[in-house]
Amino acid sequence: MNRFSGTLLFFVFLSALMIFQSCGEGSNDVIPDVTVDFTIDLLDPEFTGLNVIGATDTIDASTNNWGFRSSGYDNNGIIIYSGPDEYYAYDRTCPHDFSENGLSVRIKIDASLAVCPECGTSYALSAYGTPLSGPGRLPLRITKPVLTAKGTSGFGTTDMVLTAFSPK
Hints:
By secondary structure, the chain is α+β, with helices and mostly antiparallel strands. The protein has 2 helices and 11 strands. The radius of gyration is 20 Å and the shape is globular.
């Protein structure tokens, strides 16, 4: 193989790599990174609803006095969604309003949808925060929490703990 064909092969490989990277699962790099670090005991009466598939709950700085660790971007909070196989934690900041207008708008929850009161975009929590309708094209910022067993209680049941951590 001569020098020209080796260089050509390198550029073809590099181009293919860039194309495949751009066709990956949608991501939201619009909302700035913030530290997310909280633990939810799924047997805590405040969060037992999350044991049902498709359930949602929201947390923010005032939840259990967790402070900024659970407040998401600009203190808008975090949405916890209970999927069929795992849990998801979404930032409550609308990516469309932030990218287009620089606004930090807290989205509302309507069953398994998150709806922006400003632009009207609806996001499907069951589909990784993908926009369903409205002008938004970016998904919600997501952090995958980890579900672990904490131990057994006196009743023989396991305390399940949901922990989300996203380094800043």
